Amino acid sequence: MLTKRIIACLDVRDGRVVKGIQFVDIVDAGDPAELAHRHAAAGADEIVLLDITATHEGRGTLIDTVKRTAAALFVPFTVGGGIRSADDAAAVFDAGADKVSINSAAIARPELIGEIGSSFGAQAVIVAIDARRAASAADPVGEAEVYVSGGRKPTGLRVVDWAREAEQRGAGEILLTSMDTDGMRNGFDCELTARVSAAVQIPVIASGGAGSAAHFADVFRHEAGGGKADAALAASIFHFGITDSRELKAELQRAGVSVRLPC
Amino acid sequence: MIAVIDYKAGNLTSVVKALRYLDARDIVITQDPEVVRKADKIVLPGVGHFQATQLLTKLGLTEAVRESVAKGTWFLGVCVGLQWLFEGSTEAPGIAGLGHFAGSCERFPARFDDADLKSPHVGWNSIESIREDSMLLRGIGAGGFVYYTHSWRAPLLEATAAVTNYGGAFTGVVEQDNVMGVQFHPEKSSTVGLKLLENFIAL
Fold it and tell me: Residue ranges of the domains in chain B?
């Protein structure tokens, strides 16, 4: 049976792993390569490295960090941040990434999704969407809006519409981050995740708000109220030793979620 | 010598990286049919579109592999590399595979068991019904998890050495004497995948 994936996310700034609380406050959490290996050994199904400063400071992706991290990593490895062209993506793949995550650049030029996909396959392209509920709308979830530049700029695009377009243009997966729940550790935005998951055929990775195993179980659930996510991403709950993936998965298994165990 | 065939289809660095990590000696990344003919083992990686395999024929590699395989050279196809062992794929109807195994690769159905089936099939799934005589899967038990990412899949046949269930059973591992293929990515499948590659290196 296909299992639900637990993805450890490393937000990297200046070559160090950091984790923002609602994209703003930053706390130093360690070396990316070391943390990636620690997470993989502790049962993470996948590793994502996001260079969170790349876009708005115009910095290229940290190729050396990617190389070092990929060197002895034998689980899927995604890199995002500062990838604006198929050439940028190629450099990241050459350095050892299996997938790239693109966000602002895909909004600016949606053709980029297909350009990367045609050279490296659709499975190698994750379109990351930073979403915020439209609090004042009649349907705050349906009208949820896409933001770019680390959550600074609204785009006027509806999340569900953009997810569908990304799929049509050849994205292999959607990484959906709720800016309302990110860093709060109060749970994922299950309603929004379920809405996006139902709108597309490709896998949806839920992100933002993980604080406990129960939150993961909720976002994976397919029944009413669940998030219908195929994978979920977490960062801060691991870095500070609250739990590791293996413990988290054991709890999920007890809750009836199918996970990769033993791992 | 292990010849890893470079046909510009996705990411062969990760396969090579895993082989080196496992101390495989004398790995040559090549597009040269003569190098392939001299190899003791051939690895055909690949992720992406079946269309990419047409380059193999253009470069004379299809014939080189056919000859090598006929004289007993060990062969391992990964992902599209497994699919290429069959007659073809509905992903690229005009492109012939090696045709070593009968049948054609087909897309996952959009619905299965009265429910929508997501495609691509991405993530960790288990391999089941492992054939006891499989050399590639020696020491790997049923229920072991491996990483998949694909939208097309190979049919079941006698040479199937392990199946995975997603929208019904499909061939996860194929093995007939010296010719082997895996639909998943052993180089991304942690301990189970490394064990499989180790088995291949040790042949």
Answer: 2-202
Fold (topology level) of A5-254: TIM Barrel (3.20.20)
Lowest average pLDDT, out of A151-155, A199-203, A228-232, B198-202, goes to A151-155
Residues of chain A found within 8 Å of residue B120, distances taken between Cβ atoms: 122-123, 172, 202-203
The verdict on whether A130 is a catalytic residue reads yes
Active-site residue, selected from the candidate residues A88, A98, A130, A189: A130
Q: Determine which one of B91, B175, B187, B198 is catalytic.
A: B187
CA A23 → CA A166, A168, A261, B59, B69, distances in Å? 24, 29, 32, 50, 55
H or E element at residue A114 = helix A111-120
Average pLDDT over residues B100-127: 94
Q: Tell me whether A66 touches chain B (CB under 8 Å).
A: no
pLDDT in tens, B59-90: 999 999 999 999 999 999 999 999 999 999 99
| Cα–Cα distance, B6 to A83 (Å, whole number) | 25
pLDDT digits (tens, 9 = 90+) for A64-76: 899 999 999 999 9
pLDDT of residue A237: 65
Identify which of A5, A40, A71 has the shortest CB distance to residue B123.
A5
Q: Could you name the CATH architecture of B2-202?
A: 3-Layer(aba) Sandwich (3.40)
Give the integer Cα–Cα distance in Å for B159 and B177.
9
- The alpha carbon dihedral of B11, B17, B18, B24 has a sign of positive
Residue with tokens 């495609």: B119
Quick check: is B185 catalytic?
yes
CB-based contact A157:A107 (threshold 8 Å): yes
Give the pLDDT confidence score for residue A118 in this predicted structure.
Answer: 83
Q: What pLDDT is stored for residue A25 in this prediction?
A: 47
The per-residue pLDDT for range A109-148, each reduced to its tens digit, is 999 999 998 888 888 999 999 999 999 999 999 999 999 9
| Segments of chain B assigned E as strands | 2-5, 27-30, 41-44, 74-78, 88-89, 104-107, 111-112, 115-116, 121-126, 145-150, 152-153, 160-165, 169-176, 179-182
Run of H or E residues at A234: strand A231-234
